[in-house]
């Protein structure tokens, strides 16, 4: 993973537009957040292999970045993106790592289903 | 004093669950000549530690953790390591009966005299609780006389209040180097923590020594 380069990420996002793609989207505080700090309200969500098609996708902000995809009937959105990679399978992997380095958010786009 | 067992079965959901609280006990059983089977439900695919700065990504993490798990198993002498193919953070959403039956299949095949797993309800992570619950549901299907002993790991903030003090405390200081090797084998998850922990261990910090040298279990009572 590399630190986000807006131009490269935007080009990669454009490359998946107007076709069926699989999405992995996740946010998390970690399963131990409320155990370590009982005043902390832990919340998170994830979806793996949602099949969508977007007409436009953008990366915005000054970093950490936001990414939004306008899909056929709605939206996909992630906030806090810091790192990215186009992997050996051509998938666009984006993630947000917190100040402690731990993963806090991930948004990934692929032409084939994730394992 | 750790009782000699005929066969031990360890069931946890994540690579590294075995390392902190149980690897010394496992290494001791192996030293006693007892075969140990470790069934690990997931590959910790959703782990948040990917290095700082990140050295891997969400999709490659499971491959790394699979290799780390094998290395940790080798470090403590586990001969029979099984990766069951469930997915991190989803164990509690599986069909309870199917999951329990899967556990029962393994129990029937391995025929353990002792099973080590998490205490359901007192193990913090939903995968931990669901794994412990499935194992207990499985053992419950056996006639009482045929049930293996169940030693459960618990560490929720309310576990002592609810369960009392642990009734099994294993002194594993004789195999502490193997235990530390097992923890270090899970490098992607433990590297940052181990730097400080190993230093404290060398300096004989009493809190860290106690954490490394003693492993606590609650015998499951039917």
Give the helices and strands, then pairings.
The complex is a heterodimer of chains A (115) and B (222).
Chain A: E1 2-3, H1 6-15, E2 21-27, H2 33-36, E3 45-52, E4 54-60, E5 65-71, E6 74-81, E7 83-86, E8 92-97, E9 103-110
Antiparallel strand pairs in A: 1-7, 2-3, 2-9, 4-5, 5-6, 7-8, 8-9
Chain B: E1 8-12, H1 17-31, E2 36-40, H2 61-76, E3 80-83, H3 96-110, E4 114-118, H4 126-140, E5 149-153, H5 159-163, E6 168-171, H6 176-185, H7 187-202, H8 206-213, E7 214-219
Parallel strand pairs in B: 1-2, 1-4, 2-3, 4-5
Antiparallel strand pairs in B: 5-7, 6-7
Helix pairs in contact in B: 1-6, 2-6, 3-4, 6-7
What do you see in this structure?
The complex is a heterodimer of chains A (115) and B (222). With 115 residues, chain A is mainly β. Chain A is built from two helices and nine strands, in the order E-H-E-H-E-E-E-E-E-E-E. Chain A has one domain (2-110): Protein Yojf, Chain: A, CATH 2.70.180.10. Helix content of chain A is 12%, strand content 50%. In chain A, the strands form two sheets. Chain A has a six-stranded antiparallel β-sheet, with helices on one face. In chain A, strand 7 (83-86) and strand 8 form a beta hairpin. In chain A, 34% of the residues are buried. Chain B has eight helices and seven strands. Chain B has one domain (8-219): Rossmann fold (3-Layer(aba) Sandwich), CATH 3.40.50.10320. Chain B has a seven-stranded mixed β-sheet with strand order 3-2-1-4-5-7-6, with helices on both faces. By secondary structure, chain B is of the alpha/beta class. The interface between A and B is medium-sized, with 26 and 22 residues.
């Amino acid at each position: 993973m590399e630190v986000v380069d807006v131009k490269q990420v935007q080009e990669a996002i454009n490359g998946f537009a107007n076709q069926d793609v699989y999405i992995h989207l996740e946010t998390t505080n970690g399963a131990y957040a409320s155990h370590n700090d009982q005043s902390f309200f832990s919340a998170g969500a994830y979806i793996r292999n949602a099949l969508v098609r977007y007409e436009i996708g953008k990366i915005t902000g000054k970093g950490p970045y936001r990414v939004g995809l306008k899909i056929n009937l709605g939206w996909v959105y992630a906030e806090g993106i810091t790192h990215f990679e186009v992997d050996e399978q051509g998938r666009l992997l984006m993630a947000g790592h917190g100040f402690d380095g731990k993963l806090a958010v991930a948004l990934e786009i692929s032409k084939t289903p994730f394992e | 004093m750790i009782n000699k067992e005929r066969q031990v079965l360890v069931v946890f959901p994540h690579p590294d669950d075995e390392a902190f609280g149980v690897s010394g006990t496992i290494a001791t059983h192996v030293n006693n000549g007892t075969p140990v089977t470790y069934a690990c439900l997931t590959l910790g695919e959703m782990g948040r530690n990917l290095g700082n700065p990140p050295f891997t990504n969400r999709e490659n993490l499971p491959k790394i953790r699979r290799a780390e798990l094998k290395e940790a198993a080798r470090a403590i002498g586990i001969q029979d390591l099984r990766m069951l193919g469930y997915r991190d953070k989803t164990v509690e959403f599986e069909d309870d009966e199917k999951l329990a039956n899967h556990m029962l299949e393994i129990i029937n095949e391995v025929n353990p005299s002792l099973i080590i797993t998490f205490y359901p309800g007192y193990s913090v992570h939903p995968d931990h609780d669901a794994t412990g619950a499935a194992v207990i549901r499985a053992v419950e299907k056996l006639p009482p006389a045929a049930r293996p002993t169940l030693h459960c790991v618990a560490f929720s903030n309310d576990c002592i209040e609810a369960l009392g003090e642990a009734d099994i405390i294993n002194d594993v200081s004789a195999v502490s180097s193997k235990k530390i090797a097992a923890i270090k084998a899970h490098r992607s998850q433990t590297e940052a923590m181990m730097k400080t922990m190993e230093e404290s261990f060398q300096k004989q910090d009493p809190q860290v020594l106690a954490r490394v040298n003693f492993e606590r279990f609650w015998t499951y009572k039917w």
